[in-house]
Amino acid sequence: MLTLVLPRLISFEGAGRRSASVVERNVTTLQPSYWLVMASGFLEPILYLFSIGVGVGALVGDLTLPDGRVIGYAAFVAPAMLASSAMSGALSETTFNFFGKMKFMKLYDGMLATPLRPIEIALGELAWAMMRGNIYAAAFLVVMVAMGLTTPGLAVGAFGAAVLVGFAFGGVGMALSTFMRSWQEFDLVASAQFALFLFSGTFVPAQAYPPVLRWVVEVTPLYRSVDLIRAVTTGEVGWLQALDVLYLLVLFALGLAVAGRRMGKLLCR
Amino acid sequence: MTLIHARGLVKRFEGFTAVDGIDVDVQRGEAFGFLGPNGAGKSSTMRMIGCVSPPTDGVLRILDMDPRRDGPAIRARLGVCPQLDNLDLELTVRENLTTYARFFGIPRKVARARADELLDFVQLTERADSKVEPLSGGMKRRLTIARALVNEPEIVLLDEPTTGLDPQARHLVWERLFRLKQQGVTLVLTTHYMDEAEQLCDRLVVMDGGRIVAEGSPRTLIEQYSTREVVELRFNAESQEVFAGKLTGVGRRLEVLPDRILLYVDDGDDAVAEVQRRALSPASVLVRRSSLEDVFLHLTGRTLVD
Amino acid sequence: MTRYVLEYHLVSYRRIWRSSVLSSFVLPLLTMLGFGVGVGAYVTGGVEGVPYLDWMVPGLIASTAMQVAIGDSSWPVLGGFEWQRIYFGQAAAPLRVADILDGHLAFVVFRTLTSCAAFLLIATAFGTMHSWWALATLPIAALVGLAVATPTFAYAASVRVDSYLAVLFRLGVIPMSLFSGVFFPVESLPGVLRWIAYALPLWHGVDLSRAATLGTAPDWSPVGHVLYLSLWAGAGWLLAHRAFRRRLVV
């Protein structure tokens, strides 16, 4: 029995090690300017939180949730900011940067001449994309706790949720990139991303939308992410959130599988 | 021992056949070449051997493994120098080697030591900390070759190793490859330069239109498909064709090219004397040894580089 | 001479205008719908006596002007020196540095104006314009565009790596669009931040635009606003000219 299982385990271990070498390559490329970009990226969701959550929040006042609870506008908006920043962080790394590496730098052609397989490259790039996003998420949650928008215990749970959101969108971003032909097409991705950002129950509860729009919104990935993180930070997790987790896991697995397959098709013709 | 074994190997892309059923055997320690013009199917063959392009049909065994199944294991023992340098532009020269070594799972310390060795081998030690972008074409090519050696491969695949390099850079690359050959590394290369094939290859196949049209050592190919010497005649005229008629009977064979006529002869000086006897006055006359270019011209009716 | 440079930019723009329509026009429209209409429903009683949507739309027009102007003078300028290197080609022609700079600036103003005009049209259809003065938002947009484009030209001509442009967006453009009175009144900002908002150009454009579309008097003297924005544009131009000279005249 053991002899049957063992070779598989070893080959899996090799895959993990090989994906890690892709991450290592990315770490080696880091330039001083990167740290500045990284530091400034951390500010972005926090600025949104202060502008919309606090500034506009003063105009809106308290919000009554569909289940009857009343919360401050900032506490309502903050988890949505976290979700959308996890999304945009994951997408920027896996669309624009990934596409450039694949199509213009021909980076993966060189890698594929080594024992690396397409799916291992995809996984390595995804893991790399997540590292930065996760640091942002953690920092944002610290700010939320400091502002009294959630508790430290709930923030730990929300961190896990944000990591999952990042992986799900990272998988989708990579899969999308393998279908792209030119830089211009990424404008469409950016617009779709912005539309999601505006209409995913981010600023107002989805119940405020007209019925048709509402059902469309409810099935979009960002809405499910907002729903999950908001439920965690406000401490109201139920069965629906289990569905959110499942949804995001499927999205991640699907995205990664499609990306690996398509990369194989594109690069190993 | 046979390192690469192909029988009836086929690569088809949508609506076009790049490699059309070739048989190849490469032995350990040999320098083996694919000679042919652009589009002959050389690069497609190389990509199949490099396990980054699944064969459409036929048998392919590399290091006694199946590339369809054992890709990673085979690639672990190959070194690949592609036609276009795909070096990592975001890394320095040395980092290109050390990072690449990590893809093979080589420990960091070993990778660093090997990188230094290889930089010395390709004469890039002084540029170790430079970025890749400002390097000359020859330097980039040498770095790509060094990168292909980082895993101490048993077979090194070189796709047109000197295309696009100036003569001086080419000779430096040839000299390094020759040293590798002496060390017993198996080299498989493609080229459309006959001088490169003559310099480097123990054995080669001539490819045209996805098929192998001849096989042997450079010397036997020349003996088999050409004469000892060639006379090149250029006439000052719209067309060389007119003069071809007046040259019948001179030498064994004659080829008319757009800008010159080639006479295949056993003795060049005799042939030149005969041309003068016939009162033809070419603008230039050149007597030279036969080359693989002539072999190719004879086999396909076309020149290698057009 | 400036005219030929502008012509060049207009001709190249013909090839890509479709994709830029999306980012410069559809995105602000979505913001208006998603944010203005959505959040507006929760802002009971409106702001300063008008519905929230009507109050924020003029701010969004000014903010669009700023984003289009900076977007079009950051990557294209860096690319003009580092990637496509169009400026070096132009400098080889009998053009002065000022011609090259002004021609490209004129194009940026053209882009700013067309984006804002389209937006103005849609916002009017939503019934958010209270006065004919609304037409004045266009020259205001052009002025805001110049005030932010010229220093951006200077910056983009001075850096060599595009990650510095990402930093400009994150530390400059995004904070400015979030805290310049577009989404909520500047008065609710704490002291120091409020003064930073006053010092930056966007708030001046927002205050002018809002006065125009609502048909009310601005918070500050309109002449003061215009002079202050002109000061940004003028100082920015001098910096940009110096940066361009440094790269083109060797």
From TrEMBL, chain A:
Residues 36-266 form the ABC transmembrane type-2 domain. GO terms for biological process: response to antibiotic. InterPro entries: ABC2_TM (IPR013525), ABC2_TM_bact-type (IPR047817), ABC_2_transport (IPR000412), Nod_factor_ABC_transporter (IPR051784). It holds the Pfam family ABC2_membrane. GO terms for molecular function: ABC-type transporter activity. The keyword Transport applies. The chain crosses the membrane at residues 34-59, 71-96, 133-150, 156-176, 188-209, 238-259. Its main location: membrane. Keywords: Antibiotic resistance, Cell membrane, Membrane, Transmembrane, Transmembrane helix, Transport. GO terms for cellular component: ATP-binding cassette (ABC) transporter complex. It comes from the Bacteria. It is found in: Cell membrane; Membrane. It is a multi-pass membrane protein. Belongs to the ABC-2 integral membrane protein family. This is Transport permease protein.
TrEMBL record, chain C:
It is a multi-pass membrane protein. The chain crosses the membrane at residues 21-43, 105-126, 132-157, 164-184, 226-244. Residues 19-247 form the ABC transmembrane type-2 domain. GO terms for biological process: response to antibiotic. It comes from the Bacteria. It is found in: Cell membrane; Membrane. Its main location: membrane. GO terms for molecular function: ABC-type transporter activity. It holds the Pfam family ABC2_membrane. Keywords: Antibiotic resistance, Cell membrane, Membrane, Transmembrane, Transmembrane helix, Transport. GO terms for cellular component: ATP-binding cassette (ABC) transporter complex. PANTHER family: NODULATION PROTEIN J (PTHR43229). Belongs to the ABC-2 integral membrane protein family. This is Transport permease protein. The lineage of its organism: Bacteria, Bacillati, Actinomycetota, Actinomycetes, Micromonosporales.
